Amino acid sequence: MPEGDSAGESIHGKPSAIGNFFKRLGQIYQSWLDKSTPFSAFRWASTLLLTAIYMIRVYILQGWYIVTYALGIYHLNLFIAFLSPKVDPSLLDDPDEGPALPTKQNEEFRPFIRRLPEFKFWHSATKGIVIAMICTFFDAFDVPVFWPILVMYFIMLFCITMKRQIKHMIKYRYLPFTHGKRTYRGKEDAAKTFAS
């Protein structure tokens, strides 16, 4: 292998200071992401706070409506992927192929598996907000547009997309939200009621 081919190595084959710096920075970032995983309420609260700060900034500056529209479309796509099953039932030729949700009362419970998991949804949405916030610092992204048209178009797009998603959910009988397996009363619970 020729010297300097691998990422982060200098010409002499030793790791460069810049490569080490970015590698360490990536490790710290990943460590913070790993530590934040169990705290979904805090993560989403911080993302909502960041969204509010972004919206206030756009409102005060009275610009960057195209960036905000692009952010809204990106978040809509993330939300649709979050609501969609990992294996789309409409694409399966054989209904026995792939994971299926129960259609009868006595079938086994199978949890809903998302195309986009909650953590990746949060991470992508937060990165999108940060990138949009950075874009508001550059005048090149402040394209003059009549913003009410963008708002109406986004509302129309949201309604059409959600209508299609809800029809898909009804047609293939799945709910994107599961709260765990059903619990049934065992024999010991039934014995207590008879003893009373």
TrEMBL record:
Keywords: Membrane, Transmembrane, Transmembrane helix. One of its GO terms (biological process) is retrograde vesicle-mediated transport, Golgi to endoplasmic reticulum. It is found in: Membrane. InterPro entries: Rer1. Involved in the retrieval of endoplasmic reticulum membrane proteins from the early Golgi compartment. Belongs to the RER1 family. This is Protein RER1. It comes from Phoxinus phoxinus.
